[in-house]
Amino acid sequence: MLDLFRSRSGFALLLVALVFIGIVLRFTGQMGLVEDVSFGVFAPVQSVLLDLTNGVRNLFGGFRDVNELRAEVKQLQDQLNKSTIDSVRVRELEIENTELRDQLGYKQANPDYLLSGSTVIEGRVLGQDPSALVNYVVIDEGRAEGVGLGMPVVTPAGLAGRVTEVGTHWARVLLLTDPSSSVNAVVQSTRATGIIQGQGQGSDLLVMRYLPLGEAVKEGDLILTSGIGGSFPKRLVIGQVIKVNQRETDLFTEAIVRPSVDFSRLDYVLVMKKFTPTDITTEATPTPTPTVTRTPTRRPPPTATPQQ
Amino acid sequence: MSPYFVILLLGFIAVLQTTLVPLILPGPVRPDLMLLIVVGWGVVHGNGQAALWGLGGGILLDLFSGTPFGLHSLSLGAVGLLADSLQTNFFRSNILMPIVMMFVTTLLYHIGQAAAMQTLGYAVNWASYIFGVVLPTCMLNTALSPLVFWLLRRLDHVVRPRLTW
Fold first, then answer.
1. Cα(A23)–Cα(A20) distance, integer angstroms
2. HEC string for A136-165
3. CA distance linking residue B37 with residue A71, whole number of Å
4. Cα–Cα distance between A278 and A149 in angstroms, integer?
5. CB proximity list for A247: less than 8 A, separation 6 or greater
6. Which of residues 7-46 of B touch A (CB under 8 A)?
7. What single-letter DSSP state applies at residue A44?
């Protein structure tokens, strides 16, 4: 028997058998142990390679001043991202305040939270998918660190994707730019809702579909998560509209959206652990908001006293 | 060449493909290191080994990838088989033919994968994929192929006397 596999054709047969076993295991969802072992072997190598590459980058970057400037730029960029998110929330609060004032007795159940106030875990991006047909990344946090299926993955710049596979110490994240990614979204200014989908295969832009006809969206509008469906929290920044496609014969308007996250430079991401995706198919009355520990973060902005 | 060395080599190539290459070349257009190695070994060495390298290397890429398992292994195995069979029909001293073959195999590899994915229900934007990803990748692989062939020829000279098959 062993002699069979020592021959070239026997070895080829063995490899083909492994491929078909792999197909069956992946199809039936039983691939976990194999992937755990393989990522357990490869992840340290990938980490070392990333560290070496970053080290070489820093070395050729030159002087300490350059590194300090780089750190300062990163710090300023983080502050800018945080300010952008804060300004989005301030605007959201203003809109919410106006809506509440218009609807007496309406109770707004949406929690207000800060990214830093949510329970998140930082994951290092170990690698990207070798195929250009899909957009996945693998991070170095898994079940042992509390990562679960469906958890949103964000960066300080905005929503990046969601967890689609989890191992012991690794997880696979489906990025927003993948064609199979769909996120319920809302146009910040008009509150028109639609679905954000990735275009994939070379494009780093997103498309927002099923927007109502008319003035639902215009160039420059900010697109946020709507929270509909319970898969993602509300008000996560997705991107900005750069083009609106609307023809007279169309039933819906489409908008091309540039994502706020730079997917070509993903080094670290944050997995929102505390957010539990709501499965509306098992609920009699779907919960409209995610289950997040509510922490008041700021007083509503002062509004002008109506003149009498 | 020892199978253990081949497994280590293919494993290292798979790690480079998924970790280092996206870091150096962010974006969808990147060299296919595994494809370069498989086709290159078929051109340089032949003897049916490229198909085995393709299957083995493809299994490793499938472990890293979110695509259906088997996509990389079967497509690389097929490409390796093609590289092996073509190597036997052309003169080794004709450098143009292997370079042209690299272009063609890259094209077939990516189009084959896209067709398989579409058959499995994935959305494929053919125009964007072919003109935005496949053709630039073909050109990149073709440009890198002389270097890869040279490196693999050096390796072939080293290991040929000690072939275990």
1. 5
2. EEEECCCHHHCCCCCCEEEECCEEEEEEEE
3. 39
4. 12
5. none
6. 11-12, 14-20, 22-24, 26-30, 34
7. H
- A30, A31, A33, A35 alpha-carbon torsion, rounded to 10°: -160
Residues 75-114 of A with CB under 8 A from B: none
Distance set, CA A100 to CA A287, A296, B6 (Å) = 20, 17, 67
Q: Is B103 exposed, middle or buried (0-12, 13-18, 19+ CB in 10 A)?
A: middle
pLDDT for A107-145, tens place per residue? 343 333 334 445 778 888 999 999 989 999 999 999 998
Q: Provide the CA B33 distance to its chain's centre, in angstroms.
A: 6
Q: Are A208 and B140 in contact (CB under 8 A)?
A: no
Taking the C-alpha atoms of residue A42 and residue A40, their distance in angstroms, rounded to an integer, is 6
CA distance A112 to A59: 43
Measured between CA atoms, the residue of chain A closest to residue B63 is A35
**Residue B64 is encoded by which pair of tokens?**
């890293």
**Alpha-carbon gap, residue B30 to B27, rounded angstroms:** 7
A-chain CB neighbours of B81 within 8 Å are none
State pLDDT tens for residues A34-77.
888 888 888 888 888 888 877 776 666 665 567 778 888 888 88
Test A133 with B117 for CB contact under 8 angstroms: yes
- Flag whether residue B145 sits within 8 Å of chain A, measured between CB atoms: no
Lowest pLDDT segment from A24-33, A93-102, B5-14, B47-56 = A93-102
The ipTM, to two decimals, is 0.85
- Phi, psi torsion values for A218, nearest 5 degrees: -140, 165
Beta pairing, strands A158-166 & A171-175: antiparallel
Q: What is the DSSP string of B69-126?
A: TTHHHHHHHHHHHHHHHHHTTS-TT-SHHHHHHHHHHHHHHHHHHHHHHHHTT----H
Q: In Å, what is the CA distance from A55 to each residue of A124, A249, A293, B14, B160?
A: 16, 55, 39, 21, 37
